[in-house]
């Protein structure tokens, strides 16, 4: 887990696959194949809700992050983009 962004309105966390879970067993036995995926959790602090992006949504968000790294957006531009994802947030934040 890696925090990417934290402001008064949003938190963005990159959830990365557990490297130990993806590694083969210590005794060399074959483990069943596991789907290793990453995703992003976006918490809207204003509403107290969160959305988890995985699959194609995570890939699109990763492209957005790469664009931010190239173009150095203002905080308002980042907040506006995160606000567009906040509409997807349905899950109340229980523990954070």
Automatic annotation (TrEMBL):
- One Pfam family, short name: DUF3567
> Which top-rank group of organisms is this from?
Bacteria
Question: What is the recorded name of this protein?
Answer: DUF3567 domain-containing protein
